[in-house]
Every structure is written in C-alpha cells, then in structure tokens.
Amino acid sequence: MNSTPRTTPNRYDPLTRLLHWGMFFLLLAVCALVELHEIFPKGSSGRTAMMALHMSLGVIALIMVLPRLGWRVVQALRGALPDESAMPGWQRLASKAMYLAFYLLLLALPVSGYLGVALDARSVDVFGLFTLPPIGAGDHNLAHDLKEVHETLANVFIALVGLHFAAALWHHFGLRDDVLLRMK
Asked: Which cellular compartments is it found in (predicted)?
C-alpha cells in the first residue's frame, strides 16, 4: 500500500494544499501586521511588537518556501501535478510565469526585508529561537533603499495574489473548469 500523498488529475495532493493554504494565511498575517502597525504611535511598544512579529513571520515564510518549492519539484518529477494539457498554450505559459514570479518573490521579499534591517545595524530576533545578526556597522541609506525595494516587491506580490485570485474565479465561473477546485 502506497502512503505517498497523491495528486489526481483534478486535484492537488493534501500536502500541496496544506503548504499552499498555510503559506497564504502566513503571508496574510505578515501583510496585516505591517499595515496595522501604523495604528500605534511611532516608537511605541505596540508598534515595535507588531513589526517584530512581522519580521519573525517573514523569516518563517522564507523557511517554509523551501519545502514548498522542494515538494513542487518532487511532484513535477513524479509527474504528479494536475494535467494542464487541455488548457490553451497561453494559459499554461501564464500559469508557469505566475508560479515563477511567486517563488521568486517568496524568496526576494524576506531576503530584502532582512537586508533592509540588517544593513541598518539591527538584528532580527525570530520568536526568541534564533537571531539573524546585523550586517556591518550600518548603512542607513542602503538600508532605506532596500526597505523601499522590499515595499515595492510586496506591492507587486499583492497585485499578483489578486491576479491569481481573479484567474481562479475566472476559471471557476467563466470557464467552468476544475482549476479552482484543485486546491480545495
């Protein structure tokens, strides 16, 4: 009896779905924290705590993208991804481009965020489990520039999530195919 999670032609395996939705909710929390921290005055303990949690969860997201990417590669090598051969070529290309963009951003966002903090001579404590050290004595201008890059990448990521969501709805309600149900 094979206990390996299975992908059917119309549905992803349970581990893929868990990694997908787990990452979604983790990143939703990361985004909410960075947006909601502004309800606290600058320099307040509440604002500092929300940003510390934002950074800790960002590091966790970076750690979690590695098994997610690894599992996707394993599934692709096993030929266990849902069959997209019936989709028009432009849709398959768009799907692959979206996956590539997501994975690049899932790597670039936490790295740029960390560098923006570390180059400002600050460390990142991750839930008291470990600390990512500062880099050098501090370069405020470079750190500021990296924080701007981080924010721009975050906005691109949010736009891509919106596009991903819209495409899933289009498949479900417009094309009436099973693409949305693959992650259910």
From this structure: Cell membrane
